[in-house]
Amino acid sequence: MEAALLGLCNWSTLGVCAALKLPQISAVLAARSARGLSLPSLLLELAGFLVFLRYQCYYGYPPLTYLEYPILITQDVILLLCIFHFNGNVKQATPYIAVLVSSWFVLTLQKWIIDLAMQE
């Protein structure tokens, strides 16, 4: 019984996370404008999700404890691309994407880097 309830909670969390930003993405696409989206806040959110996901992977936590974060990161990257697309230059997103991808590897070059990133 407990295992079934835990499984239901895990899958419902994944479902909610998968649908969390869909209304925002669809509103941006329907309006064909990124007005109202804040690039700094989106980047901050992406950085937080990325650091947390990398921390969980680095220390070998079970995937079910962090499986929603790749979904959230994907949705944020879609919003990031929407911001640049509707502002007229998708190529400006390249440095941001490059920093996000490279930070995935930089965070675990030394153990102290990932631990420092998770400090309050």
Automatic annotation (TrEMBL):
Keywords: Membrane, Transmembrane, Transmembrane helix
UniProt membrane topology term: Multi-pass membrane protein
Major location (coarse): membrane
Organism domain of life: Eukaryota
Localization, UniProt: Membrane
UniProt xrefs under PANTHER family: MANNOSE-P-DOLICHOL UTILIZATION DEFECT 1 LEC35 -RELATED (PTHR12226), SOLUTE CARRIER FAMILY 66 MEMBER 3 (PTHR12226:SF3)
Record's protein name: Solute carrier family 66 member 3
Source organism (scientific name): Colobus angolensis palliatus
